[in-house]
Amino acid sequence: MQTEWAVVTGSSSGLGVAYADRLAQQGANLILAARRAELLEEVAADLRHRHGVRVETRPVDLALEPDRTAFADELSATSVHTLVNNAGFGTVGKLAELRRDRIAEEVALNAGAVTELAHAVLPGMVARRRGAIINVASTAAFQAMSTMAVYSATKAYVLQFSVGLWAELHGSGVRVLAVCPGPTATRFFAYAGDDAMLKQRRQPEQVVDTTFRALEAHKPFVVDGARNRAVAFATRFAPRGVAARIAPTFMKLT
User: Fold this and answer.
1) pLDDT tens across 91-119, in order?
2) Are 30 and 20 in contact (CB under 8 A)?
3) 191 in catalytic set
4) Between 20 and 30 A from 225 (CA), which of 74, 101, 149, 179?
5) Separation CA 85–CA 11 (nearest Å)
6) Which of helix, strand or coil describes residue 132?
7) How many Å apart are CA 65 and CA 70, to the nearest integer?
């Protein structure tokens, strides 16, 4: 019998580790993908030791086209029952002042990799009439954001892409979920360039709990945390331009 796998991208730290741990608790064999090979191996060793599951690592940079294509090709030939598209990053700053290569990588990772990896695993899932794709979006998906325009746009893409796939696959046995965390206790903001933003942060394990409850309920998307749901809902009533301008100030105050 062919071994089935759960795949988690961005799994060397933060939310990726929390997703990998939960899947390992459920007895899943894992393929973990991230840029930082040493950290990835440490995570894999810990999961093998604590949960006794098979864990393989793939040190790849999914923002780069050759790595992304090679990994997608591998997954298309692998029996994947769960894909967690978690890898992604944001950048704080005015677009005119950012490096072009960083912008290109942000779009390629946050939107391109999500799409290509989902495309790679879907034919097998549909043929087996079972599987799950979890795409990590953000509460930023509901709100254009000055000084994080690229990030909010890519996460809006992830949300819309996921909901469209959810509808497309209805009745197929394959579930698709976009999870929209708010501020979470990871290295996201430090890497984005401003760790002082949004200091009221949820824990990765809380986001994972929310994710799997929503997946079981066959929801197309879920916002993690009551406060984050309220904020995401409130943005529907504010003029888009006004909300985009005040977002940086709001993020400093909360």
Assistant:
1) 999 999 999 999 999 999 999 999 999 99
2) yes
3) no
4) 149
5) 10
6) strand
7) 8
Expressed as residue numbers, the domain containing 45 is: 5-253
C-alpha span between 236 and 36 (Å, rounded):
38
Higher pLDDT, 200 or 43: 43
What CATH number should be reported for the domain holding residue 170? Answer: 3.40.50.720
Tally of domains within the chain: 1
What average pLDDT does the chain have? 91
Whether the per-residue pLDDT at 237 is higher than 90: the answer is no
Dihedral of CA atoms 119, 123, 124, 125 in degrees, nearest 10, equals 80
DSSP annotation string for 12-73 = TSHHHHHHHHHHHHTT--EEEEES-HHHHHHHHHHHHHHH---EEEEE--TTSHHHHHHHHH
Record the tokens describing residue 19, joined without a space: 């997703």
